[in-house]
Automatic annotation (TrEMBL):
Pfam families given in the database record: DUF2229
Keyword Transferase recorded: yes
Domain DUF2229: from-to ranges: 4-220
Protein name, entry field: Predicted nucleotide-binding protein, sugar kinase/HSP70/actin superfamily
Keywords: Kinase, Transferase
Presence of the UniProt keyword Protein transport in the record: no
GO MF terms, alphabetically ordered: kinase activity
Length: 328
């Protein structure tokens, strides 16, 4: 019988989905992804998570519930580190335990630990552990892993070339026809926040509808991001933080854009540090900057108003020599 593996459309999904999908499908499993985030998923996530959790973690719980009764396993790895000497947010590390304690009667979780701070040998052990839920054949698992890596590198290349993974739908091509953009804005933040259309209140679509070209951190190669992140006074140990700051520095220094929008999560410790650095940079560089802090109570009308005001400010500055605050 075919093993059904459920992958929740949240958190690391936006970074690694093609890798895990290819891996499990190559092993003969059926991969089922939870629905695109909607009000029911959000409400259920909020009801089944501790109040202190950030919005992306609450949404993730909603996605687990969405899969609960239709799969044999739910994929919730324990992600400690994805780059050497760096760490992911503590909420990723404790995610399997958090999910298990918050939601009763779940199918078994695939909760293998991912930790790139361990040796290469241990990485292969990790891969075999993930594969063992479908087969015990190590050659099959190794081949599936190599195929999955290839798919993952292609996905990253695709994004570098301009593809924006809205809702993580790999096959989806640009929905809005290419038009002559009047401005270019960098949208920066955690992947699971900016590419989740519901969680981001359709920010990218709204910008494109106003003839704004959107650039994202994934369009910059990791070496550039790392070099820039290394130039910071203090080392940033959180992988997401490094990427966000490196990308913001790149876009600010290259003056390729008219402004930066940073989507942050209320209650996120990493975001509170980054927001502060961003605000200082934007004052120093004169780069228009809008911070949107979102949680489950944020009203879309308020976000729309701030967005319109920000775009108006950019337009106004370009014709009035920039004598306006850069800080939206
Ligand atoms: S980094 Fe922030 S937004 Fe992401 S899971 Fe951790 S607390 Fe939540």
């Amino acid at each position: 019988m075919t093993v059904k593996i459920g992958i929740p459309r949240g958190l690391w999904f936006y970074d690694y989905y093609p890798l895990w999908k290819t891996f499990y499908e190559s092993l003969g499993a059926e991969v089922i992804v939870s629905d695109i985030t909607n009000k029911v998923i959000l409400d259920q996530g909020v009801r089944n998570t501790v109040d202190e959790a950030c919005l992306p973690v609450k949404i993730f719980h909603g996605h687990v519930l969405n899969l609960k009764d239709r799969v044999d396993y739910i994929f919730v790895p324990k992600m400690m580190s994805v780059y050497k000497n760096e760490y992911i947010c503590p909420k990723f590390c404790g995610l399997p335990e958090m999910v298990q304690h918050s939601i009763p009667n779940l199918p078994p979780l695939i909760d293998t630990e991912i930790n790139f701070n361990k040796s290469r040998k241990s990485l292969m052990k990790t891969v075999f552990s993930f594969g063992s839920y479908v087969t015990k054949n190590p050659i099959k698992i190794r081949n599936a892993y190599l195929k999955a890596l290839e798919e993952y590198y292609q996905y990253k290349e695709h994004m570098k070339n301009g593809y924006i993974p809205i809702n993580g739908i790999y096959e989806e091509k640009e929905q809005i026809p290419h038009i002559n953009y009047r401005r270019r804005i960098a949208v920066i933040g955690h992947t699971y926040h900016i590419y989740d259309s519901y969680g981001s209140m359709n920010l990218i679509k709204k910008l494109k509808q106003q003839a704004i070209d959107v650039v994202i951190p994934e369009m910059i190669d990791m070496k550039t991001i790392n070099d820039l992140a290394n130039s910071l006074e203090k080392k940033m140990f959180w992988s997401y933080g490094r990427k966000i700051l490196g990308a913001a520095l790149h876009y600010t220094e290259n003056k390729e854009i008219d402004g930066i929008i940073y989507i942050s999560s209320f209650g996120c410790g990493i975001d509170s540090v980054i927001e502060d650095i961003f605000e200082r940079w934007s004052r120093r560089s004169g780069m228009p900057f809008l911070l949107l802090t979102i949680d489950e109570h944020t009203g879309e009308a308020g976000v729309n108003t701030r967005l319109e005001a920000f775009i108006d400010m950019i337009d106004w500055r370009s014709s009035n020599e920039g004598n306006l605050s850069t800080h939206g």
